[in-house]
Design brief:
Length: 244
């Protein structure tokens, strides 16, 4: 017996034992070979009952399910475990087509776009600051006491230097962040950034420069960086904005 017949036989075996009708329905037991003709007769009865008598419905009764047909016949699907139902609330379906979908940016008091916005709140914004090498992660911050807009560091990685005392060419393991160098200036990636094997002699992190010999096959070159004038001259306060 193919899978479809097995499934139908199992279903009808559960539904029909408690049904008495003018037509005698055939029932089947586990392990019994079901005759295709008898299954077809049962199937025909279900079809005729559904179309001519209004169909059947199922309702929970304790841990069982009672199937009642419009012609007055019924059957019970006994539970092998506990059946639990929970009430379901209703939700309104809002029209989201009117919501803005443009890019999130940070603008200053003069509505000049300063940077692409990742996330932020209360005047402290994580942004993608554009460089000639792409962008770096940084923060644009409203300094409410002085009423100015400043640029801050999102994450300060270790900066390695080719020479002693944190001088010469600078290298980092990940060029994705705006960094502060030993002289207080900014360091970022640029169009000249490349991955290169290098032995360095010093490192800078947390405001401290120290001698440190370091060798790595995949350091990235980084360079001094000057903020765009639109950002250094940004009007206070900066705010989050969504483009149309």
């Amino acid at each position: 017996m193919n899978q479809s017949l097995k499934l139908l036989a199992a279903l009808l075996a559960l539904i029909t034992p408690a049904i008495s009708t003018a037509q005698e329905l055939h029932t089947f037991s586990n392990g019994e070979v079901a005759d295709a003709e008898k299954i077809n007769e049962n199937f025909q009865y279900v079809l005729e009952n559904a179309s001519s008598s209004g169909g059947c419905s199922a309702e929970q009764d304790g841990s069982s399910v009672v199937i009642t047909c419009a012609d007055g016949t019924s059957g019970v699907l006994a539970s092998k475990g506990t059946v639990v139902t929970y009430p379901i609330g209703a939700s309104a379906v809002p029209d989201v087509s009117t919501l803005p979908t443009g890019q999130l940016v940070v603008v200053d008091a003069n509505d000049i776009v300063l940077a692409k916005l990742r996330e932020g709140a209360n005047g402290n914004y994580l942004v993608e600051l554009q460089t000639s090498g792409g962008y770096v992660l940084a923060r644009i911050i409203n300094e409410d006491t002085e009423e100015v807009v400043t640029v801050g560091i999102y994450s300060q990685p270790t900066i390695y230097f080719q020479e002693m005392e944190c001088s010469g060419q600078a290298f980092v393991e990940n060029p994705s962040y705006l960094m502060l160098g030993p002289d207080g200036g900014y360091i970022t990636n640029s169009s000249a950034t490349q991955k290169i094997a290098q032995v360095t002699q010093s490192k800078y992190r947390g405001g401290v420069c120290e001698k440190f010999e370091y060798a790595d096959n995949s350091l990235y070159t980084v360079f001094q960086f000057v903020l765009a004038q639109e950002i250094t001259d940004a009007g206070y306060p900066a705010r989050a904005y969504q483009l149309p």
